[in-house]
């Protein structure tokens, strides 16, 4: 056999590489099991961590093995994932030197609105809006104008620089700024002490993806990552300047309270508690009243009532309650300006924890040269007056200036604890972000849920693997044993390659690996079915296997390439776990080709060349499908009617019943909450609704569904989803806790509730998706489906040289997609598991398309072969012969894949059930459509007007022909 030596060498080298990569994972897991068994024995634990395993070719010890072990995703290990978006408006404003040109301001405002429903980058939308506003106002401004980008911040731009050149320069600077933000974020994560963090820029956007397995405190993580570390110093306005305005608001509420979002009997002056004020602020407000005060001050009525002296004033809250009053927060009036640029806005060169003369924790800082110069000017100007030190619109301290500070040294005293001071020092020490950052998507999975996912994944994997082994050996006998050996080697390679590439294994990734096993079975089925045909034709065992591999190769390559095309589309258009699924599928496709075709061939022919036989069937399966022949073409009209009825039912349901959309398509928050007793979802929903009221007093949407067991709920809401601040997240969690308090364990605190672990009641996982991210996910999902269909059409056209085949394939795929959509529309209110339309569903649709086209390609390949060999006197007979001759492969592959999917559906855990249900429907209908729709459509468009229909075998001259 040609190439036998090369294939063997590649297999051995690849195996050694994978073994070397997987050993650290095995060793780290082994030591951790022993540590757990040590039951807190510190001496034994220390010995285990310092122990070394000498293997001759390498030494293994725990700390190094832990660093090199396979990465597990959040759904398997627990942890936190956030998607940060750098505020590009801030970047643009900075590059324009905070210009107040009305054309610029309007263009920025319009860009903010457009961006909410756009997948284009912010800067591209800005350039479009700037041109539109510029033209509408007849301003004839150039981008190089000094009031736009032609300023000292962009020295490379001259007055005669063209707009296209300016656009290129600005885009590069923004990209550099996002790169700077990426490095700052990565430094901060190192300070958080996360194990195996994964930090990546999202190409083509100003977004940074951060994944931290094992982390629990999501508030701490968000705060650390969102803080800009841009320390600012402002002048302060005090009570005499703002008191008249407060009095005006108090009077206005009595007349227009409804339009301000509060009751008319609210006494604003009482909320401010001026008699309790002991600082340089303008109010001391109870924590419970801060939201009301914010609502009043930010209302349009209050904004329009501002007198000239506080037109640009910014009202900011203190960082935390004062030590003298822990139930109130101080409100400060910051003297702003038209640009709202701080008088001192410099980065910190060094920051250290220190103590003042009373022993209180403070933070000492040294500013950079620019900040030191501006700080000196500000302090000289305000001797005897207060100034505020702010970080991300929070006032940390507001002392009176005793004298000018010339050297850039200053001190923040904010009633810190040691941990709070350390967090601030870490943030300042990591450097400042070039602009503010906001969390537009966040996922938190508790460690207990992660372990449950691992257990469910392992169980489903083991059952699926066992099913495949038993079935393929039962059906193909000795040849099946070689298929199983190739499949085990395939799995070893997949895990080894994932580990060596530092890829992350997720629960959908495990599903992808299990489906890869089914695909490996499909490959062997194609080979063995062709081998059986050759044996039945009278060839020797050696020649039968030789021709079986030869004739199966085209069909295998076509099927694998279409699946690979689907996986590539998924990888580029998917996000998060879907990328994990696509990645394992891509690796699996390539490795299946190597192990099930090349390596399996080497093993089989090594046996045959020694004169040993190798059965390709067992007694019960030898003649299955051998003499089966069905007049598919003659019955195609029945199939058309069945499919038309199902399609109409699906479309009616889609347009009348609609879908349940997931938050990654609509934006919102999901919480999986566990209780210590069974709870009723409808009762819980009724209890929660009153807690989620918007500013106009209307209830925000809240949906509660049982998730898995009857003591676990999935709660979804879009309350405050447009507010991407940490405070909004905390507000939603607080309201959720208050609404569920009566059904939780009496000992559950808010802190326990927010991060439930084993044995605790509360949130075991949470997810937040902002509206802009939801729009991107939705548009990417649509693009992915369109790209997959387009790619498949072109590939089929290229391979089969007839557009009729491409048309039949694509119509069949549309048919499958509509049936799945219809099933989800009809059943989403009935089924006891999640049936949301989300990115997982898009992945399922694309996976179904990949497997359906695989089935279709096998049939088309046989039709092409029979056309080339002129095996039939009529086209209809040729199609019937082709489909009938591939029935064994179609049944075996479909049956095996459905068994595997069913195993994952039953045992794979709640997170995968909706995904697997789509695959169950899709794979079943995919096999049906390949036979009854794709082939029939291709036939109807290929036949001539005089074509005769055939109702019998054509290759054995037992046909009965009737004219149309």
TrEMBL record:
Entry's transmembrane regions: 456-474, 481-498, 510-531, 552-574, 580-604, 638-659, 780-798, 805-826, 841-860, 891-909, 915-939
Coiled-coil spans in chain: none
Keyword terms of this UniProt record: Cell membrane, Membrane, Protein transport, Translocation, Transmembrane, Transmembrane helix, Transport
Membrane topology: Multi-pass membrane protein
Primary localization: membrane
Annotated compartments: Cell membrane
UniProt xrefs under Pfam families: Sec_GG, SecD_1st, SecD_SecF_C, SecDF_P1_head
Domain spans labelled Protein export membrane protein SecD/SecF C-terminal: 438-600, 753-942
Matches recorded under InterPro entries: SecD, SecD/SecF_arch_bac, SecD/SecF_bac, SecD/SecF_CS, SecD_1st, SecD_SecF_C, SecD_SecF_C_bact, SecDF_P1_head
PANTHER family for the chain: PROTEIN TRANSLOCASE SUBUNIT SECD, PROTEIN-EXPORT MEMBRANE PROTEIN SEC
Record's function text: Part of the Sec protein translocase complex. Interacts with the SecYEG preprotein conducting channel. SecDF uses the proton motive force (PMF) to complete protein translocation after the ATP-dependent function of SecA.
Protein name according to UniProt: Multifunctional fusion protein
Natural source organism: Chryseobacterium taihuense
């Amino acid at each position: 056999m040609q190439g036998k030596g090369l294939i063997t060498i590649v297999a051995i080298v690849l195996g050694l590489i994978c073994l070397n990569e997987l050993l650290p994972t095995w060793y780290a897991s082994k030591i951790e099991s022993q540590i757990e068994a040590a039951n807190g024995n510190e001496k034994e634990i220390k010995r285990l961590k310092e122990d070394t395993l000498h293997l001759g070719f390498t030494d293994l010890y725990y700390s190094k093995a832990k660093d090199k072990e396979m990465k597990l995703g959040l759904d398997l290990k627990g942890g936190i994932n956030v998607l940060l978006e750098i505020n590009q408006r801030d970047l643009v404003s900075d590059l324009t030197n905070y210009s107040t040109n009305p054309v610029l301001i309007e263009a920025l405002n319009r860009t903010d609105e457009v961006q909410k429903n756009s997948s284009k980058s912010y800067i591209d939308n800005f350039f479009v809006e700037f041109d539109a506003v510029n033209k509408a106002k007849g301003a004839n401004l150039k981008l190089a104008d000094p009031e736009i980008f032609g300023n000292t911040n962009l020295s490379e731009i001259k007055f005669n620089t063209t707009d296209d050149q300016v656009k290129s320069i600005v885009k590069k600077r923004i990209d550099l700024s996002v790169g700077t933000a990426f490095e700052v974020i990565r430094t901060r994560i190192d300070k958080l002490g996360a194990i195996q963090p994964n930090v990546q820029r999202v190409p083509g956007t100003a977004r940074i993806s951060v994944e931290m397995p094992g982390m629990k405190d999501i508030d701490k993580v968000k705060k650390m990552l969102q803080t800009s570390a841009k320390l600012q110093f402002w002048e302060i306005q005090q009570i005499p300047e703002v008191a008249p305005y407060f009095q005006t608001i108090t009077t206005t509420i009595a007349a227009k309270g409804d339009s301000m979002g509060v009751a008319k009997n609210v006494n604003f002056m009482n909320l401010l508690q001026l008699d309790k004020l002991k600082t340089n602020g303008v109010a001391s407000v109870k924590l419970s009243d801060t939201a009301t005060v914010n609502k009043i001050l930010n209302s349009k009525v209050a904004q329009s009532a501002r007198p000239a002296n506080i037109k640009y004033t910014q009202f900011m809250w203190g960082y935390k309650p004062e030590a003298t009053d822990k139930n109130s927060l101080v409100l400060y009036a910051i003297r702003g300006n038209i640009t709202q640029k701080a008088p001192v806005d410099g980065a910190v060169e060094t920051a250290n924890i220190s103590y003042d003369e009373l022993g209180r924790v403070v933070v000492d800082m040294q500013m950079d040269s620019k900040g030191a110069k501006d700080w000196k000017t500000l302090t000289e100007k305000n001797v005897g007056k207060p100034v505020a030190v702010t970080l991300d619109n929070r006032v940390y301290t507001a002392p009176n200036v005793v004298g000018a500070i010339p050297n850039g040294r200053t001190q923040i005293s904010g009633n810190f604890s040691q941990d709070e001071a350390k967090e601030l020092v870490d943030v300042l020490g990591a450097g400042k972000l070039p602009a503010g950052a906001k969390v537009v998507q966040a996922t938190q999975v508790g460690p207990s849920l992660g372990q449950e996912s691992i257990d469910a994944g392992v169980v489903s994997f083991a059952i699926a693997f066992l099913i495949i082994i038993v079935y393929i050996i039962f059906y193909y006998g000795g040849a099946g044993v070689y298929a199983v050996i190739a499949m085990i080697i395939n799995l070893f390679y997949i895990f080894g390659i994932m580990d060596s590439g530092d890829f992350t294994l997720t629960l959908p990734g495990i599903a992808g690996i299990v489906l890869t096993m089914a695909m490996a079975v499909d490959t062997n089925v194609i080979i063995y079915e062709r081998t059986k045909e050759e044996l039945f034709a009278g060839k020797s065992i050696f020649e039968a296997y030789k021709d079986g591999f030869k004739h199966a190769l085209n069909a295998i390559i076509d099927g694998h390439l279409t699946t690979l095309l689907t996986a590539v589309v998924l990888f580029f258009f998917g996000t998060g776990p879907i990328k994990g699924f696509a990645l394992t599928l891509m690796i699996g496709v390539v490795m299946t080709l190597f192990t099930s075709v090349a390596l399996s061939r080497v093993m089989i022919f090594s046996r045959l060349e020694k004169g040993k036989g190798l059965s390709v069937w067992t007694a019960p399966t030898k003649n299955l499908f051998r003499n089966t022949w069905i007049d598919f073409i003659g019955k195609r009209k029945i199939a058309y009617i069945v499919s038309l009825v199902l399609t109409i039912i699906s479309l009616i349901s889609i347009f009348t019943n609609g879908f349940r959309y997931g938050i990654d398509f609509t934006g919102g928050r999901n919480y999986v909450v566990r209780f210590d007793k069974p709870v009723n979802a409808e009762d819980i929903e009724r209890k929660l609704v009153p807690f989620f009221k918007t500013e106009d007093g209307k209830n925000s949407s809240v949906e509660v569904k049982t998730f898995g067991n009857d003591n676990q709920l999935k709660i979804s809401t879009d309350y405050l989803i447009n507010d991407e601040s940490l405070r909004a997240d905390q507000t939603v969690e607080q309201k959720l806790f208050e609404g569920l308090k009566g059904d939780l364990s009496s000992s559950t605190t808010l802190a326990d509730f927010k991060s439930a672990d084993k044995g605790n009641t509360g949130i075991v996982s949470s997810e937040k998706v902002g509206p802009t991210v939801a729009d991107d996910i939705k548009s990417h999902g649509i693009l992915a489906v369109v790209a997959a269909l387009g790619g498949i059409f072109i590939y089929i056209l290229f391979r089969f040289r007839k557009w009729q085949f491409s048309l039949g394939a694509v119509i069949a795929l549309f048919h499958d997609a509509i049936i799945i959509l219809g099933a989800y529309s009809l059943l989403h209110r009935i089924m006891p598991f999640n049936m949301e339309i989300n990115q997982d569903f898009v992945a399922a649709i694309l996976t179904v398309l990949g497997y359906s086209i695989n089935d279709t390609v096998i049939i088309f390949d046989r039709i092409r072969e029979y056309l080339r060999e002129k095996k039939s006197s009529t086209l209809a007979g040729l199609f019937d012969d082709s489909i009938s001759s591939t029935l064994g492969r179609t049944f075996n592959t479909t049956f095996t894949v459905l068994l595997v999917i069913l195993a994952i559906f039953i045992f794979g855990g709640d997170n995968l059930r909706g995904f697997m249900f789509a695959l169950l429907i899709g794979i079943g209908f995919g096999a049906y459509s390949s036979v009854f729709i794709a082939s029939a459509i291709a036939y109807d468009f290929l036949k001539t007007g005089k074509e005769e229909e055939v109702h019998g075998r054509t290759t054995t001259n037992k046909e009965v022909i009737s004219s149309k």
